[in-house]
Write a structure and sequence with these properties.
130 residues; 5-stranded mixed barrel; 6-stranded mixed β-sheet
Length: 130
């Protein structure tokens, strides 16, 4: 897995002062949970590998291990065991393929330094040149 992501970036969004990595969509408990359906309905509990995470659905209370997939334009198309994390590079949405402690890689194998910020309404994954 390389260097795992610090656990302080996992958890429900908007719970404490530390911004957490936002999940755009995931398939949990037989349903697709989208960030647009409520923003904080799904969150990362634990990192299993650079491409797989244990995620928790707030509404169902269920958890599932999901793999990052390239479905940025239609997150409603995620299938069982899939999830989408979107970062923003120069204002453009970038679908994340894998993440380590400080490096995110997109599906074109571009590498970025990442950070998470909280603008009081949502958490945003910001990407910068390595």
């Amino acid at each position: 897995m390389g260097r795992p992501i610090n656990k302080k970036y996992f958890g429900a969004l908007g719970v404490d002062a530390t911004p957490h990595i936002p999940v755009e969509a995931a398939f949990i408990g037989g349903i697709i949970v989208n960030a647009t359906d409520g923003g904080s309905d799904v969150y990362i509990v634990k990192q299993k590998s650079s491409r797989r995470f244990l995620v928790h659905g707030n509404d169902s209370g269920e958890e599932a291990i999901c793999k990052l997939v390239n479905k940025v334009t239609d997150s409603s198309a995620v299938l069982e065991g899939e999830m989408v994390i979107i970062g923003y590079y120069n204002g453009q949405a970038v679908n994340v393929m894998k993440m380590s402690n400080r490096i995110a890689t997109d599906f074109s194998n571009n590498r970025y330094k990442w950070s998470v910020s909280d603008d009081s309404t949502t958490n945003v994954l910001t990407l910068e040149d390595v």
